[in-house]
Amino acid sequence: MYILRNIIIVATGASLASALDFVEYGNKAFDAIKRNLPDIDIIKPRQLALCPAVWTQVATELSTTFLNTTDLLCNDDARAAIRAAFHDCASWNTSVTGGCDGSLILAPEELTRSENNGLQDIGPKLLALTKKYQAIDSSVTAADMIQFASSVAIVTCPLGPRVQTFVGRTDSSTANVEGLLPDVNAPSADLITLFANKGIDAAELIALIGAHSSSKQFHVDETQAGAPQDDTPGEWDVDFYADTSSKPAGVFVFASDASLAADPQTSATFQSFVGAQAKWNGAFTPAMTKLSLLGIAGGSTGMIDCTAAVPLPRLVPRSLVQRQPIMDRA
């Protein structure tokens, strides 16, 4: 908005000066008008740091890694990458250090915790990618790789939105505090308090758990390993919000999700996303960006916006077009 506003000022001022030149006010009046226009040197747009080119290369590789070419849906690596972004950041609250610092994959004891079960495969892959691209650009960090990979995974899933994505995090090999991640059996009141202590309110929490739309469980109940949290786990849709209540056959509903869906504090928000793809995407994206900055002093201040390096949301397979928001189909 700052850049656009100043461009308009220059264009409008120049057009006005030209129209008045020697016509109505003569040379003297024209000079007076020019003196009152902003000086072009004063209103130059701020020079923002450019996203390092290496992230475009990372995006190209990840886009291939996360796509199931047989059905054009996002795959298990994509699901795990999204979850990894949550787990690296959310094992933090305002009373401890850590947060989005890459420790999930840099501190071996953190990745092997039971609360991170299911991430032991994607962790080494993200670490290998980090090392590969650090050899190209030393500014690449594991913490940034985790969050950037999540953003690419989300847009690889049909209907997934582009989340504002920053780089510039500092890595840590010190494990984050244990026990600060949400438990799938926790009651809603505990979850609301848990996230409030991270600076995430109840409405943001309900938007964030919609990521279970693309999720499968493998360790909550190993007798149902691979069961999804909604009936379309390869898509970034809102079926999760309906399926959590209706519990269709084959869908594994976490007790924590069911509790949030029924809680008077959160049920209205939960139900508002049923059948409302654009509304959910609009709520999820800022909440996810906020989560991706937990534990970082100053938030995005001083960081570099690399959203443009994240691929655009994918064109969905023909069979899914009717599920896409009308404005997204335009």
UniProtKB/TrEMBL annotation:
<keyword id="KW-0408">Iron</keyword>
<feature type="binding site">
    <location>
        <position position="101"/>
    </location>
    <ligand>
        <name>Ca(2+) 1</name>
    </ligand>
</feature>
<dbReference type="GO" id="GO:0034599">
    <property type="term" value="P:cellular response to oxidative stress"/>
</dbReference>
<dbReference type="InterPro" id="IPR010255">
    <property type="entry name" value="Haem_peroxidase_sf"/>
</dbReference>
<dbReference type="GO" id="GO:0042744">
    <property type="term" value="P:hydrogen peroxide catabolic process"/>
</dbReference>
<dbReference type="GO" id="GO:0046872">
    <property type="term" value="F:metal ion binding"/>
</dbReference>
<keyword id="KW-0325">Glycoprotein</keyword>
<dbReference type="InterPro" id="IPR001621">
    <property type="entry name" value="Ligninase"/>
</dbReference>
<dbReference type="InterPro" id="IPR002016">
    <property type="entry name" value="Haem_peroxidase"/>
</dbReference>
<comment type="similarity">
    <text>Belongs to the peroxidase family. Ligninase subfamily.</text>
</comment>
<feature type="binding site">
    <location>
        <position position="237"/>
    </location>
    <ligand>
        <name>Ca(2+) 2</name>
    </ligand>
</feature>
<feature type="binding site">
    <location>
        <position position="88"/>
    </location>
    <ligand>
        <name>Ca(2+) 1</name>
    </ligand>
</feature>
<feature type="binding site" description="axial binding residue">
    <location>
        <position position="212"/>
    </location>
    <ligand>
        <name>heme b</name>
    </ligand>
</feature>
<feature type="domain" description="Plant heme peroxidase family profile">
    <location>
        <begin position="78"/>
        <end position="304"/>
    </location>
</feature>
<feature type="site" description="Transition state stabilizer">
    <location>
        <position position="83"/>
    </location>
</feature>
<protein>
    <recommendedName>
        <fullName>Peroxidase</fullName>
        <ecNumber>1.11.1.-</ecNumber>
    </recommendedName>
</protein>
<dbReference type="GO" id="GO:0000302">
    <property type="term" value="P:response to reactive oxygen species"/>
</dbReference>
<feature type="disulfide bond">
    <location>
        <begin position="74"/>
        <end position="157"/>
    </location>
</feature>
<keyword id="KW-1015">Disulfide bond</keyword>
<keyword id="KW-0575">Peroxidase</keyword>
<keyword id="KW-0560">Oxidoreductase</keyword>
<feature type="active site" description="Proton acceptor">
    <location>
        <position position="87"/>
    </location>
</feature>
<feature type="signal peptide">
    <location>
        <begin position="1"/>
        <end position="19"/>
    </location>
</feature>
<keyword id="KW-0479">Metal-binding</keyword>
<dbReference type="InterPro" id="IPR019794">
    <property type="entry name" value="Peroxidases_AS"/>
</dbReference>
<feature type="binding site">
    <location>
        <position position="230"/>
    </location>
    <ligand>
        <name>Ca(2+) 2</name>
    </ligand>
</feature>
<feature type="binding site">
    <location>
        <position position="213"/>
    </location>
    <ligand>
        <name>Ca(2+) 2</name>
    </ligand>
</feature>
<keyword id="KW-0732">Signal</keyword>
<dbReference type="GO" id="GO:0004601">
    <property type="term" value="F:peroxidase activity"/>
</dbReference>
<feature type="binding site">
    <location>
        <position position="103"/>
    </location>
    <ligand>
        <name>Ca(2+) 1</name>
    </ligand>
</feature>
<dbReference type="Pfam" id="PF00141">
    <property type="entry name" value="peroxidase"/>
</dbReference>
<keyword id="KW-0106">Calcium</keyword>
<feature type="binding site">
    <location>
        <position position="232"/>
    </location>
    <ligand>
        <name>Ca(2+) 2</name>
    </ligand>
</feature>
<keyword id="KW-0349">Heme</keyword>
<feature type="binding site">
    <location>
        <position position="99"/>
    </location>
    <ligand>
        <name>Ca(2+) 1</name>
    </ligand>
</feature>
<dbReference type="GO" id="GO:0020037">
    <property type="term" value="F:heme binding"/>
</dbReference>
<dbReference type="InterPro" id="IPR044831">
    <property type="entry name" value="Ccp1-like"/>
</dbReference>
